[in-house]
Amino acid sequence: MPSIRAAFALGVFLLSAAITIPWQTLCLAVKGLGYKTFPNWYQRQLARLFGIHVRVYGEPIQDRGVLMVANHTSYLDILAIGGSAKLSFVAKAEVEKWPLFGTFAKLQRTVFVVRERRSQTGDARDQIRARLLDGDALMLFPEGTSNDGNRVLPFKSALMGAAEVVIGHDANGKPLYPPVQPVSVAYVGVHGLPMGRENRPLYAWYGDMDLVPHLWESLTTGPLDVVIQFHPPLYVDQVGGRKALAQKAEAIVRAGQAQLLAGRMPETPPAPQNKPAVALAEAVA
Fold it and tell me: Which fold has domain 2-283?
């Protein structure tokens, strides 16, 4: 039965891709038809299709340009986070060349980064600044890689320099900077039961794991519970520069993930989600 369910989910995904890729390509070409909001809807449907149950605490900033920074566990983060807020991602340049997934990344207006080249990192930082000035929400994984989901790696500060762009001035002429919103992501359950440290690598994708076999194993293992916490925003001028900003955001994300993994959920109730749309499996049936 798990194999049948996994095969069905992958089949529906491939069928939906054949429909949505041309549609989103058209949306981007005309800069309309919900070209910014469609990926959010689609990823929410894929999360449901793949059995990713998401609880969200806190409110993602959606009314102005914002740089979100989160810990990174797996490619499944994209569906969990992307279905919880309208945003684009910042990803390593290799993702652009991945079959199918690279196409989806480009259609979501991903900013691709060549981390090994300092000059191109600067180009990516400029792209991020431009997108923030344009009012977009961007998700950056400052660890620079994914890990086993049981910890948070040190945040790199290079791309967080985009938060130093001045977006305006207040009534007294003081410069205003874009918000940087820390986000904690925790994989907390499987089949509705608490997930132990030893089980997270079934979903976490890191090291030299092959994508397709790992995806199949994840789907056959069963439904996954993910908790996302959007923390209050930080501002670069309030913490003393981009390096201090990276350290502060890292501390907040690490503490948040540790609490979520320990089963200590925030006192505030989960943020209200959008009205549930028709499940993707039903929509393409």
Answer: Glycerol-3-phosphate (1)-acyltransferase (3.40.1130)
